[in-house]
Amino acid sequence: MAEKLKPAERLKKDRVPMRAQEPEERINNFLEVPFGYSLQEAIEEAQRCLQCKPPYCVAGCPADVRIPEFIEKIIEEDIKGAFLEIKKTNALPAVCGRVCPQEEQCEGACIMNKKGKPIAIGRLERYVADWARELNYSDAKKASVRLNKKVAIVGSGPAGLACASDLAKLGYDVTIYEALHKAGGVLVYGIPEFRLPKAIVDYEVDQIKELGVEINLNYVIGLTKSVDELIQEYDAVFLANGAGAPSFLNIPGENLNGVYSASEFLTRSNLMKAYEFPNYATPIRVGERAVVVGGGNVAMDAVRTAKRLGAKEAIIVYRRSRKEMPARAEEIEHAEEEGIKFELLTNPVKVLGDEYGNVVGIECVRMELGEPDESGRRRPKEIKGSNFVIDTDTVIVAIGQSANPIVARSATGVETNKWGYFVADENGKTTHPKVWAGGDIVTGAATVILAVGAGKKAAKSIHETLSRQ
Amino acid sequence: MYKILKKQKWSDTIYSNWIEAPFVAKAAQPGQFIILITNQKGERIPLTIADSNAKEGWVQIVYQVVGASTLELSLMNEGDSLYAFVGPLGIPSEVENFGGKVLIIGGGIGIAPIHPIAKKLKELGNYVVSIIGARTKDLIIMEDKMREASNELHIATDDGTYGQKGFVTNIMDDILKKESEAIKDIWAIGPPIMMKMCTRVANEHNKQIWVSLNSIMVDGTGMCGACRVSVGGKTKFACVDGPEFRGNLVNFDEMMLRQKQYCDQEREALMLLEEKIRRQASNG
């Protein structure tokens, strides 16, 4: 058991850095960038925690992870105990430890921010979850109580998985319906291998299956079966199908060959493993130079994927300045280290093609920032006559998603708003008494952890409602 | 799941498989399609439904070997299972009793997906006039089933080895010249160039026409936008807004260019697979 330091000693310690693949090496592979902590590093970092009461970090976590408790267990070198603490509330710790924006959540709320750097809660969560996976340790077992009540969940992304896990532990019979051939939603089709290895997602999905959750793959609710039918067959239905329809720029030339939505580009690479073409049968094309339009996390994922697929130059085109970019700071830094170029305050106006219908360039215009808009960000304005062309083989549009209509159009009595998202209260309740909804299909494209939080709230609300019946 | 219940070879390159897929069979309607994956490393292949039986729980597909993935599919045997099979996808055909004649045109492999539409239209009480065509006699498929699903059946082959010599569009033009008024609606499914030509004939006679677009797709549920087509100047997704569109509004030239997007990769994959098959044959 490691030593428990006095508060003054804890304050003196620096945040333990995480070792990572060097940029010049990692741009040639799809392996995960950071290596994760060793036991020693995890203990060193855990020793910095002040064990606040009440803990601010937990208040910042949508999954209510018992943070001080699991960190304490790390110091005690009881990693299994730490794992069990985390799993009490979070079914996806290896995923969340990697892709949560901790700086805005637990770590953002950490008291240590006032003195220096916050406790690396995400890295510690990741360490504990990886320990369990590497030892093939599982705490998953079917609930001893059987409530004989059935819940259907539409979508096997983070919201659906979190909801399924909580309900299964309470003794519900849970069936997830997934349209794709692999469970995980955005975790498998959206987030690249180098940020979230798919073996990790598979492991956490398997754990949820061990709780007794049934996952029906290749099953499109809205087509194979309607939501109305699910309402008939189940005691409750949770809609967690994600946003799932790509937005385009609506500029000329957008249907040229070589223009991708980020969803298509990432799905080809991540879900279909096009980066291993022709060993895997799905093709992808990148060429010498790739331009990614957008400034969010998805844009960073796409541009770093393009670089790894062999683009000599991969460029972000974003209409505001670096300060306004919605991507996590860490993702932008990783991209910069990998030699990604940034054309900021730049907006595309036209995609240029050759006579065979292939992209050869993208015409852009320079922008300047004006008055703040509704979102509080300064509104970009075109600088007249500043048009210029970037020669490129590939254009990837990463400007967000909108609501996919398939599920909603088979759901009678479940209200949607004018953008097609389900209307749900803070517990996920929709306008239909048997239907809950959560994740991106309620909020619009957001983060994995918010989806996990929404899944957990819906599970709680479903349990409360069904317990009363 | 997704077992190949029956497999038939209809020509050098055309095959039909009956797949065990009860959930898909139960929901399938004319005009819809499925996506299948042969094995773990396979790509998602969209194919229109040729026939289905809810009671027996199967879906029939017809495919032509054109690349590595369809070659791989053709090498699977009865009793083998596909890795994935999902559907029915897309919006069903807008069929009803139109109180008159409907014209149905199927070209080559496109005869398979036109069949359930013809069958349904006839069931609904329409007088179904069908034209099926192919390059040569051996490539005319499902003739008996089409005869059953139609009140009149016309056949055309490019080389004149069967039926009338020439294209389906020649017969289509003749029929419309004679009885344009009586024809209440038209469906045409086949290679893009055929659908483009049928649309041209329909336009000449001021007729509306449905075509079914087999764009390149990935998920097939509106998530990726790979299948986008310009219809009436607007971008549509073939997988969720279609696959059927009014041909009169479709930008076929753009669609045909988009279909060639992965030509080089497809050729590479096919060569590698053929090489592998040769090696296996010589070792075996």
UniProtKB/TrEMBL annotation, chain A:
Residues 26-135 form the Dihydroprymidine dehydrogenase domain. Residues 149-455 form the FAD/NAD(P)-binding domain. InterPro entries: DPD_II, FAD/NAD-bd_sf, FAD/NAD-binding_dom, Helical_ferredxn, SudA-like. NCBIfam families: gltA. GO terms for molecular function: iron-sulfur cluster binding; oxidoreductase activity. It holds the Pfam family Fer4_20. It comes from the Bacteria. This is Glutamate synthase (NADPH/NADH) small chain. The lineage of its organism: Bacteria, Pseudomonadati, Campylobacterota, Desulfurellia, Desulfurellales. Gene3D superfamilies: Alpha-helical ferredoxin, FAD/NAD(P)-binding domain.
TrEMBL record, chain B:
Binds 1 FAD per subunit. Keywords: 2Fe-2S, FAD, Flavoprotein, Iron, Iron-sulfur, Metal-binding. PROSITE patterns: FAD_FR. FAD binds at V62, Y63, Q64. GO terms for molecular function: 2 iron, 2 sulfur cluster binding; flavin adenine dinucleotide binding; metal ion binding; oxidoreductase activity. The keyword Metal-binding applies. This is Ferredoxin--NADP+ reductase. The lineage of its organism: Bacteria, Pseudomonadati, Campylobacterota, Desulfurellia, Desulfurellales.
